[in-house]
Design a protein that fits this description.
Two copies of one chain form a homodimer. By secondary structure, chain A is mainly α. Helices cover 73% and strands 0% of the residues of chain A. Chain A is built from 19 helices and no strands. In chain A, helix 5 (73-86) runs parallel beside helix 15, helix 10 (200-209) packs antiparallel against helix 11 and helix 11 packs across helix 12.
C-alpha cells in the first residue's frame, strides 16, 4: 500500500507539467487546418476523432490517478474534464472544447460527441438497472424501504430549502422562454430532485475492499440504494414533467402532479410486469437465432426501445433504460449460444461511451462562475444538504444494534445519477451554468469524502463492539 | 441441413408481410410528434434512438435470414437497408429515413447516425488489421504476393475500362465544384480502385465450414487477401488524394502521383516500424495501470490516433485504423490483468456500430436510379469486371498442381472494403447516386455468388484428384 501510494504520488507530482503541456497542445490543435485534407465541405469525423482521443485519454489518466489515491475513477474523469474545459482561462487560444460548452450545441462534431455521451448515459443506467433485480428489492425488506424513502424525502426537502435560500430570481435564459407566471418553486424542486439519488457503486466498492459486503449494514445500504434509484427516478420524472408543462404555460396543478406521478409509476410498474411476462418468451425466440452478437444487440434494442418509450410517455430516456435493466435478468439468457454474461458484453460498450459523459460534464463546468461568490455558497449549501439529508435516513433503520452512522455515511455519495439529472436540468434551462457548476462541486465533494469517512465509521464501530480488534 | 433450410424458408416465406408492415409502421413514425414531450428546442436523441432501434433490428433480422440461407450476414444488413430506404417509393409518407439520404446531411439525428456508422467502419478496419499480422504476411510467400498484386492490378484496369465505356460525362454535382480541366479519368480511376479490395471473411468462412482452411489454396487466398488489403488501401489512398487535389484545381502530375504513393507507403511502413518498436514499451507501461478497461480503451485510442494521423497526412481514416490493427498484436497485452483477448473486447463495440454502417449503405441505395437502364449496364459491367479481374489473379500461383480456379473464385467477394471506398467516393462526389447504387449491386452479386461457386470448384477439384471421394 505504502509503495503503491508513493508510486501514485510520484506519478501525480512529477508528471503534471508534461501532462498539462500535452493537454494544452491538443486543446490548441486547430481542427480547421485538417479539414482541408479531407475534401469538399467540412467533415466532422476528424474533429470527432481528435476530441475522442483527448477525452478518452484524459478519462483514463484522470481515473488512474484518483484510483491510486483510493478514490473512484469517475472523480478523475470529472476533474480531467474540468481541466480540459477550463484551459481556455489560461490561454484564449486553447479553445478546442468551447463548442461543447454552448447551449444549444451548434457544431456538428459537438453534437456527435454529446450524442455519444448520452448513449453512454443510457447504457450506464441500463447497467445500474441490470445490477438490481426485482427479487433482490423484495428481499431487502422494511429497513431498506424506510432508509430509501427517508433518503429521498430528506435530501429533496433540504435541497429545496437551500435553493430557496440562495436562488432568488429566474435565470435570464429561462426567463426568456417561460410564461410570466413561472414560479421559482420549480427550480427549487428540481434542485431537490438532483439531491435524491444515491450512487451506491462507490459505497459498495469500499465495503468490498474492506471485505464487509456481507454485514447487515452493507445489505441495507445496497437494498436501499436500489429502491432509492427507483424513487429518485419517479421524483425526477414528476419534477421534470411539471417543469416541461410549466415552460409551455400550464399552471401548477395537483391534477398534473398526480398524473405525472401516475405515469411514472405505471410506466415502471407496467414495464416490470409486461417485461417479466414477455421477456422470457421473447428471449426463447431470440435464443434460436444463429447470428453472432444476438444477445448484445437484443439487449441494446430492448434498452433503446424502453428509453424511447419513456420519452413518448413524457419521462426521461434514462427512466426507460433503468427499467430495461431491472427487467432483464441473467436467467433469461440461459438458452443462448454465447457462453458469456450479459454484463461482460455490455461492459466494453460502456467502457467506451460512459467516460465521454463524465469528461463532458467536467468540460461544461465554468470555473469563472465561481468568481461570483454566491455560487460557492450554493455549492456549500448543496453539499451540506446532501450529507445531512442522507444522515437523516439512518433513522429509518428498524433493527436495533445496527450502526446508523455507517448507513447514513454510506448513502452520501451522489455521483452519476445526480449529474445526469443536473445535465437534463441544464437542457431544460432550470439550471444555469453557475448552478450546474455548484452541483458538480457537490457531486465531487460527496464522492470524495464518503470513502474515507466510511472507513472511519466502520473502524470506530468495530472497535466499540470488539475492543481487542484493531482496525 | 435440410431441416434448417426448410425452417429458414418458412421463416423467409411466411413472415415477410408481417415484417414488412412493421418496417412500414416504424418508418412512418413521425419523429416530430415526440419532440414535443422533451422540452424546449428539438432534442435529436429520441429520433437517434428510434433510428437505432429500427436499424439494429433490421440488421439482425436481415443478417439472420440470409445466414440461414448460407449467405454472409452483411448481405442481409445491406438488403435490409435497401428495403428501409426505399419504402418511400411505396408510400410517400414512409419518409423517416430520407434525412439519411441527402448529401451533405442536414439534420442533427442523421449526422449522429452517420458518425456512428463511420466510427463503426474505423473499428471494422481495425478488426481487419488485427486479424492480419506482419509476420503472417511475410510467411505466406511469393504466391500470395503475386496473387495479391494481380488481384489488385487486373480489377483496377478492368474497372477503369468499364467506367470508360459507360461513364461519358462528369456528374452535375461534381461538375459544379471542379475546375474546367477536371478529367473523367479520375472517375474511372476511382471506380477501378473500388474494385480492388477482396473481402476475405466470406471466403474464409466457406473454407472453414467445409473444413478446408488448412489446404494450400486456402492459405494462399488468406495471405493474398491481407496483402491485397494493404495494396488496395495504397491504391485507394493515391487515387482519392489525386482527386482531392484535382478538385481544388491542381493538374494531374507524375510528381503528385509519386508523392501520394510515397506518403501512403511511408505512412503504413512508418506506422509499422514505429509501432513495432514503441508499442511493446507503451503497452508495458499501460499494463501497470489499475483501472478497468485499460486494454480496450488504449487499443481504441491507438486506432483513433492513427486514423486521425492518416487524415493529417491526407489519407483516409480507414488506412490508419487498418495500420493500427496490423501493428497491435495479442502478444503486447500479455501483462494486462484483464484475462481476455483484445478481439473479444472490441467485438461488442463492433457488433453495435458496424451493422449501422451496412444498413446505412443500403438505405442510401436509390432503387429509382435503376429506371435509368444505363445504370444496370454499369452494374453488370462492374460485376463482370470484378469477377474476371480476380480470375486473372489465379495466374499468379507459382506452385504447380494447385487449383487456380478455386483461388480465383475465392478472391471474388468484394464486401465491406469496396463499399467503404464507394461511400468515400460519394462524399468526394466522384460517385453519384446512380453509380453508388451500381457499386452496391456489384458488392451484393459478388458476395452472393462466391460461396456456392466456391463450394462447386472445391468439390470439382476433389472429385478430379480423388474419383472415389464424393463431395
Amino acid at each position: 500500500m505504502g509503495k503503491a501510494f508513493f508510486c501514485a504520488m510520484r506519478f501525480d507530482m512529477m508528471r503534471p507539467r508534461k501532462i498539462f503541456l500535452s493537454l494544452a497542445i491538443l486543446s490548441a490543435l486547430p481542427s480547421a487546418s485538417y479539414a482541408a485534407g479531407g475534401g469538399g465541405d467540412a467533415d466532422p469525423i476528424p474533429t470527432v476523432l481528435l476530441a475522442l482521443i483527448v477525452i478518452l485519454a484524459v478519462a483514463k489518466l484522470g481515473g488512474e490517478l484518483v484510483e491510486r489515491l483510493g478514490m473512484p475513477a469517475v472523480l478523475g474523469e470529472l476533474l480531467g474534464g474540468v481541466i480540459l474545459g477550463n484551459l481556455i482561462l489560461l490561454n484564449p487560444r486553447w479553445s478546442f472544447f468551447e463548442p461543447l460548452r454552448v447551449t444549444p450545441l451548434q457544431t456538428d462534431w459537438a453534437v456527435i460527441i454529446s450524442a455519444l455521451a448520452q448513449l453512454g448515459v443510457i447504457i450506464l443506467l441500463f447497467e445500474v438497472g441490470l445490477e438490481a433485480t426485482v427479487k433482490g428489492m423484495m428481499k431487502v425488506g422494511a429497513s431498506s424501504l424506510m432508509v430509501a424513502t427517508l433518503g429521498v424525502v430528506a435530501p429533496f426537502l433540504l435541497g429545496f430549502g437551500v435553493s430557496w435560500l440562495f436562488i432568488k430570481e429566474i435565470p435570464p435564459e429561462l426567463a426568456a422562454i417561460v410564461p410570466p407566471g413561472f414560479s421559482l418553486n420549480y427550480i427549487h424542486m428540481f434542485i431537490g430532485a438532483v439531491l435524491c439519488a444515491t450512487s451506491v457503486g462507490i459505497t459498495a466498492r469500499v465495503f468490498k475492499d474492506l471485505n464487509r459486503l456481507q454485514t447487515k449494514e452493507a445489505q441495507i445500504i445496497l437494498g436501499a440504494a436500489v429502491i432509492d434509484d427507483v424513487l429518485g427516478l419517479i421524483v425526477f420524472a414528476v419534477v421534470s414533467g411539471l417543469i416541461t408543462a410549466a415552460e409551455s404555460g400550464q399552471p401548477l396543478a395537483v391534477g398534473a402532479f398526480l398524473r405525472l406521478a401516475g405515469v411514472a409509476i405505471v410506466f415502471l410498474g407496467g414495464a416490470l410486469a409486461l417485461g417479466t411476462l414477455l421477456i422470457p418468451k421473447i428471449m426463447n425466440q431470440l435464443a434460436r437465432l444463429r447470428t453472432a452478437g444476438v444477445m448484445l444487440i437484443s439487449s441494446l434494442l430492448f434498452a433503446f426501445t424502453l428509453s424511447y418509450l419513456a420519452g413518448v410517455f413524457g419521462l426521461a430516456a434514462i427512466v426507460g433504460a433503468f427499467a430495461a435493466g431491472l427487467i432483464l435478468e441473467e436467467v433469461h439468457f440461459r438458452g443462448f449460444r454465447d457462453e458469456i454474461h450479459l454484463e461482460q458484453l455490455i461492459q466494453p460498450v460502456a467502457a467506451f461511451l460512459v467516460p465521454i459523459f463524465f469528461v463532458l460534464m467536467g468540460i461544461q463546468v465554468r470555473i469563472e462562475t465561481f468568481a461570483n461568490s454566491g455560487i460557492l455558497g450554493v455549492a456549500a449549501g448543496l453539499t451540506i444538504a446532501a450529507i445531512l439529508g442522507k444522515q437523516i435516513c439512518g433513522l429509518g433503520v428498524l433493527e436495533k444494534g445496527l450502526d446508523r452512522l455507517t448507513i447514513g455515511v454510506g448513502m452520501v455519495p451522489r455521483g452519476e445519477v445526480g449529474l445526469i439529472f443536473a445535465s437534463i436540468g441544464k437542457y431544460l434551462k432550470v439550471i444555469d451554468d453557475a448552478t450546474f457548476s455548484a452541483v458538480v462541486i457537490m457531486v465531487i465533494v460527496t464522492t470524495l469524502i464518503a470513502p474515507p469517512l466510511l472507513k472511519l465509521t466502520i473502524a470506530r464501530r468495530e472497535r466499540a463492539s470488539n475492543p481487542r480488534m484493531r482496525p
